[in-house]
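Handout, section 4.2: multi-component inputs.
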Amino acid sequence: MPEVLKGAGGAAAPPPAPPLAAPPAAGPALGAAGSGSPSSRFDVRALAWALVVLALGAAFGAGGYWYEQSLASWRPTVTRDGRALQVATPQRLPARDLALGGDNLAWTEGPFTVLVDLRTGHRKLLGTARRAADLQGLSASAEYVAWSVGSPAAAPGVWVYSAEGRRRQRLPGTEGVRGAPAVSGSRAAWVEAGPGAGGGEASERLIFADLAAGRRSLVTSGPSLEWPALAGDLVAWLARPPGRPPVIEVRDLQAQRAWSIAPYAAGQTTLLGIALAGRTLVWSRLLPGVGGQVLAYDLDTAAVRVLASMPEVSAPAAEGGLAAWAQSDGPGAGRSSRVLAVRLPGGAAMAVAEVDGRVVHVAVSGNTVALLVEGGSSFSGIRTVAVPR
Amino acid sequence: MSPWPRVHRVPLGPRGRQALLWLLVELWALNVADLLLTRHVIGLGFASESNGVMSYFLQQGTVPAAAFKIGVVTVGALLLWRLRVYRAALVAAVLLTGVFAAVVAYQVFWSLSL
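Output:
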């Protein structure tokens, strides 16, 4: 080690150099002890570190969401071919009911109520019941989808989904709902159990509701009411008075007019369903030894017209002036079905689709018909078809 | 010898404190986002609050629910900031912020699917 030179006439020795401070290559570690007082300098790495924690957490949440969705058993496969749509529900969850209103195509599969937007193909789970049997039916308009849950263990009542507000709610006080509700525009109707007129013995009540305004009114009550149908100011339903043949009742809620139509003569006839196409009542029936028939009754002229007479027909569907149904030659004639539509009151029936399999449900809205096909060798599920103009 | 285990004071450096501060800010913002998203999906009718305490406050209205939820997290964040001399405060903030970020991201995707 060199000595420090000392001498009276010599130059003064330079002061020792200060120790070199190591440059903070990576800055102090997060856990390293600081000077004791918080640093007021903005440290971009501290912010970056906090953002990494945020991003990792968000990635974990997003991954959890997608993983959960991949496990969802309700998701149908939707394929589009131009304006037509094909929906294949999961194999273990065949579709049962079907409803179409505007761009809203809704159905039930197992305990699930599912909606597809016809424009976008976007699938949405509207509701989950405990069992498939809890779901009693559904109906749709361009504005609303309504479905009913009948089991006390599965939030019973009328459920309504507003397509515009993307809002779902269970209508309060509807726990006693029986059967499927009906929707037309922003109006709905359903049958519920309740006291008879004047608080008498228990009966069923037909309720009419303005969903947009939140108003409800009692249309009628009776011992057995079924199948409410709506079109504008008209509401129709099937009444089964005890000891007498069933009667289709129609009421114009605005004009306070009423009609009672016997859907068939007394006997072993089976009524399959009713629908309102504008001011025309459409129903289908099964006559023993004859087969199925679809009939139309013009409420203004009282003219009855047989729209179809085939070995097998489905329940009719209608909206506006358009009615549609499916028909086939019966079980011995292969497994193909035809879907027909007619513009009422005076149009001729036109073939809309011919499908391999059995069409068990038909729904109509605008110029679109939706079919639920069972047992098809090439396709089973839901299809939409455009009606020729 | 003390019968209780001692929590050793592991001090945080300046960067650790800044990171803690940012994490607490994120936690507070995520808490507000969680409240808004929860309120949104409950309003759409597709969810119900399963936390009994929050369910009670949400039934009282949005303002009481917001006051409770934001208040609790604000107090918690201030407490962690007071404990910023401990490394454990940073660890807690990392865990809380990560979990809240996951919950909020899940809610965002879910509410977008409704």
